[in-house]
Amino acid sequence: xxxxNNAVEVRNLVKKYGDFKAVNDxxxxxxxxxxxxxxxxxxxxxxxxxxxxxxxxxxxSGEAExxxxxxxTEMDSIKNRIGFVPDQPYVYPYLTAFExxxxxxxxxxxxxxxxxxxxxxLLEMFSLDDRADKIIDSFSHGMKQKLVISGVLLHKPxxxxxxxxxxxxxPKSARIVKDIFTRLSSQGTxxxxxxxxxxxxQKIADRICIVNDGKILALDTFENLQKKDSGGSDLESxxxxxxxxxxxxxxxxxx
Length: 255
Known about the structure:
The protein has 255 residues and is an alpha/beta fold. It has helices spanning 46-53, 75-79, 97-107, 112-125, 141-154, 171-186, 198-204, 222-228, 235-243, and strands spanning 6-17, 20-31, 35-39, 61-66, 69-70, 82-85, 159-163, 190-194, 207-212, 215-220.
């Protein structure tokens, strides 16, 4: 595969659980520096795809490469160059926020002078500076999510995988994260983002991939999806038309 311009390359990817295909013969690529929105209903195969690409699951068949490296045979090298924000912020509960950030910095070999500068800046940006010495177990879901995002930003990955990164964030933090994603993309970082916040995907994604039942239903820019779907003035309308969701006025009469 030609990976000169692609950060992610997926070909005929299949992931089965028994006879059930969570990911069903999926192929796509993500360009370097692109914000790629990966959308679909619950159970569509989004998280399974991300877990395969980040080495948390092994594919049943097919190929996947990150930055030209095979996810089956070169995952140790891949992990040094990617970041992952999962849909649940799994963090060490009995560390302080500062200790967590230091551990992340050390794991990814972030130079100490850079850690000393960036850790306070990141914690302050997400309004966690006054909680830096508090045990993470006392944090809310949203605070843990902000800490996980801060940890990923600390080591400056070339590719970021984001599974519902805005869940639990207050409006100010969500806006900060959106602006950070846009800036990182302009600097060459690739962002692979699963989200149900369609307004954000419409505003910042370079391309949008809509999946359901483990298959790709549409993949294009928002503008091109708009042209193909005459009934869709925004991404929500296009998404519902493609996935077969209920439109306005289609609610059950008994409600």
